[in-house]
Amino acid sequence: MKAFMYQLNRSTKIYKLNLACKCHGERWLRRSFSSSLWTCDQQKDLPEKYSKWQVDQKTSEYQKQQFENPFRRTLGILSDDIKNYFGINVNRGTGAEDDASSTRSLRQRNIGPSHCDVLIIGGGVMGSAIAYHLKQRALQGLDVIVVEEDPSYKCASTVLSVGGIRQQFSIAENIQLSLYGSEFLRHAHKLLAVEGHDPPDVQFSPHGYLTLASVDGAEQLHQNYQLQVEVGAKVDFMSAERLKAKFPWLNTDGVEAGVLGLENEGWFDPWSLLLSLRRKAVSLGTHYVEGRLTKLEGEMLDDMVVEGVSQSNFKNLRHAEVTLPSGEKQYIKFALLVLAAGSWTGQVGRLAGIGEGTGLMGIPIPVEPRKRYVYCFHAPDGPGLDSPLVIDPNGTYFRREGYRGLYLCGQSPQPNQEPSIQDLEVDHQFFDDEVWPTLANRVPLFDSLKMHSSWAGYYDYNTFDQNAIVGLHPLISNIYIAAGFSGHGIQQAVGVGRAIMESIVYGEYRTINLERFGFDRILANDPLYETNIV
């Protein structure tokens, strides 16, 4: 008699797969499975038997391995290892019988790479940051493929954002992610350098954020400020009088206080960061595939149950079908799958059965696209070089763009104003009715501004609590999620990329603990809200 129990321990936020086996009377054996992995700086400690590898051309089996693939060496595909523990014959190298039905259903001529250790869906800044960190850490120890439908990125959230980065959050993990992001941006010219190319210039402008609060919001702003200082952010809490003295062009009517970022806040060029991350990931061995994920297949782990709930089936995915621009199909076998498809992650999750099943599997990834407008206007007499990115108490923001009197601005609409996502057309009436009046009131010099250009982009909006969803899915043993940032993805991408790498390579978060951002909070209906969402 065999039983597998997957416990969701919300008090410690630790997930462990426990194996219980009853055999020979009443004697119970209990064992925990955990993954491990040799990384690039551990190669010198490898045993002699792993000193080199050869491939038998007749059997396609590995005889010895120089740097044994971490997923073939340890858990690999979870179900295989469990079966091996009980002595059930599983031959993954030659096409196991338990995998035959999936293989046959997806067997056609492969056009590109046919297998990998980690398959990343989404090649924007998030997917590319994950690929970069994985390859930078494990080098040739991991085969990484990234699937991106639009390599021009003309509709990607990354390149359509305003590229802001701040530490002014009310959740410690968000502050930590952006602190790391700022540090990364400062050293991007070295970290993302590729031989034969000019060092990347992400044009980081550390001019700070200025978050304003009314009388009603001042106390919450001060509490957030105290947390930010505690975590390590360099910010200053300023009264209305101090704000007026420092920024004479600012109308402080209705403003009680503000928090100004002194270091590590500002804005940068999202396009440059994306291209630099992608180029570096490719130089390290990442393979990008242009196409759209259209199918996922795997198997149910029928012997695994979740304690205390009716849903008893775990899934383990094995194969992906990618439709290429030509209409041809490419089939990829993988060990781990990372969903980093931005606004479309919820839809991609349904291909894996997330939101399509019963019980807990019926709960979808609550991420969907939300359209946001960015307006660029000209005001030659506006605030000068000392202007930070200013956030009004009603959420309207603006920042300087270059040195020619141009500014970017925008505002998140109210729930009853949410625009259609069917296209990326810009509503200029929204600017006239909602944005401009706020700008002209807060900065009187903007009263005579002239519209220069505008565009719209998508937020990967988490409808549950507007915060990131990061980590393993509790019921699919080999799917990671990195989505739902609700406007913060561009500034947190490199931090989340490192976190996903740590989770895959080490089986735990080692720098910034993102367990609170896990999918389990959605299953438990336990939202994690920010108190100053912009």
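(the above was protein one; protein two follows)
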Amino acid sequence: MGCASREEGGGAFTSGASLRDPRAGWLVARPPWGRTRRSCRPSPGPSGPRGRTPRVSLSRSVRRPGWGRGLRAGPRGISEWRRRRRRPAVGWVGRWRVPGGETRTPAFHPTERFSGRFCSAAVLMASGAGMLRCLHPWWLSGGRAGLRLLQRHLFTMKVQSPEFQSLFTEGLQSLTELFAKENHELRIAGGAVRDLLTGVKPQDVDFATTATPEQMKGLFQAAGVRMINNKGEKHGTVTARLHNENFEITTLRIDVVTDGRHAEVEFTTDWQRDAERRDLTVNSMFLGFDGTLYDYFNGYEDLKNKKVRFVGHAKKRIQEDYLRILRYFRFYGRIVDAPGDHDPETLEAIAENAKGLGGISGERIWVELKKILVGNHVSHLVHLIYDLDVAPYIGLPANASLEEFDKVSKNVEGLSPKPMTLLASLFKVQDDVTKLDLRLKISKEEKNLGLFLVKYRNDLTKATDSSEPLRPYQDFIIDCREPDAAARVWELLKYQGQPGLLRDLQRWSVPSFPVSGHDIRKAGISSGKEIGALLQQLRDQWKKSGYQMEKDELLSHIRKS
């Protein structure tokens, strides 16, 4: 029998092999494996004989020796379990009172993998008092190896920061009013919540809702709100435009089928189930518009402790979308203070599944790789990419020069290099840039910068025998005559670790050569070949003068000759 998916007062009801007894109010689970002589079922509730607390009977196929015929629900049952197992009490269950005076009893029905099998379990709620800030539901998870108690919790807190308050534009206020009017829940989701908790105003804000795309479309059409970008509807995303702002709202989802690149989704109203499908704990939080933070997987604690962890099992999360390997590296560079602290299970999962990146599009990989290259701990992370054998699947050369990369990563500190400036240090020959382009489909500008850096990093250097160390770079820019020549040379100076020369060159305005072919024709020379040769001679004279000679002075050399 299925149980309808919904959330009530912070407690989630999710579908599964479970029963809900309307008399006792308990959510009861049935193990899905093996033959059972008696299925799990609630015994008579408070309305039964002598008003006893309901019992949950465990079938013999999952009972361990010494457990007896069953466990009593509620605090007495937990005490009985403690006495039998001779361990401390594992938690408590209870009701709590929410603002407004209503008393609610949430029931959780999580599913967790253990020893290769699955077991849905019951969380039983008894009476209690006060406003609960942190729920600790406990459940049973087992297989042939036996039963084990695991823990999940919902942590909530109030967020009232200037960054959060600044989000409340006229458009957002109108949006929240529309959803509240139709009794649909709407919350800020994912990265925007993470940024707000770190004191940063998010550039992009994503929203999650219990409303389906059809319900959202009906809501917006009735209010006369324009909708754009209909391509995301099959994935649950609708983009609405209110007061000259775009708002991207996505229905809560469950991944039904994944292939490592894409996912077939099913809509839900269970906030925890949606959080379970997200990649990292720090990205799995929601924020209500009253400032309430909803954190199901210790994301806030990880953010405070500067830790990057996958939601649940790293291997499973990675196999749902292999790009999450690079996202792990990116957020590691963004969140962690000092490099080197990784969960061994996470690194093992990355190494085992690195080849899955071979099926990810180059464009998606390049977006993540660029963010890794401009983040913190880039030298540590690139070494890790090679140590875990990720590099071959994302277009990086097998025989990369990691020593050169370490040197350049120090050279560019504080200089805001372009991603290709740092990446070029891994390449030994220009052909490596071409191969990278074939895999990642980089832009023409990025490819040309990579080719330029590999070619000139050792040949175009500052003048050592002159009082004008910038002269070689200035001459190159003048002779190149390409509009982006100066920008490329700036990146070369970053690569070479020359911040002083970089500042001087950025202040230097590229002068215009004052003589044209038309001026030489006026001097009486008509041959195109002669005009070209004279122009080069005059340009050399102009460069020797430090770009100071005027047109008349240069043309006087023609008259003399």
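Reviewer note on protein two: The radius of gyration is 33 Å.
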